[in-house]
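Model it.
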Amino acid sequence: TSLLKAVPFITGTIHPQKLVIKVDTQDVKKLQDSVKKYYNLQLLQIAQNYVDLMRTTSEKTDYKEGLAIAEKWFGRICADKGQISSAIEHTKNGLEIYTAINNYAGIIKMNNILGDYHYQRSDFNAALQYYIEALNISETIKNDNSIAISHNNLGLIYTSQEKFEKALYHYMESIRIKKSRIFFTFPFGNK
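Modeled.
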């Protein structure tokens, strides 16, 4: 009964031998909201407990995207604890899941996160590969925001490698795309 009290939006009945829980994808999204809340407060152990529950819930319902999201959060928490190798492993697991379900937004996000982790390790060649992959997929699906982010990330790598002309090109591409998006969204903004 403590699980039901701790997470009131999960409904269920208690049997003498087992707890039966009915969940749906909205429940996993609510769990993710709790993860974000505690992660942003830097209460990493509480956030990790919610990620564990998110993973378990997603496994029981065979909700693949929920599993990928859980892996992303495990990676973030590991990175904040200074465990970059574990962060990379969890994020690669999430990338595999997103790839298996053809979730291109997730694939792009995980490639960018993996690039970030390798950048933190000063492994610029590995970071470059992940950022290029994110850019290629972003261009394929014509996602301007992701294209701009990828160009900016590539600019960071090339700056770190002191390849300033390449860095400038990618920074300028990022700015060009962002400026064109501002024109189309002003004065209403993005919804």
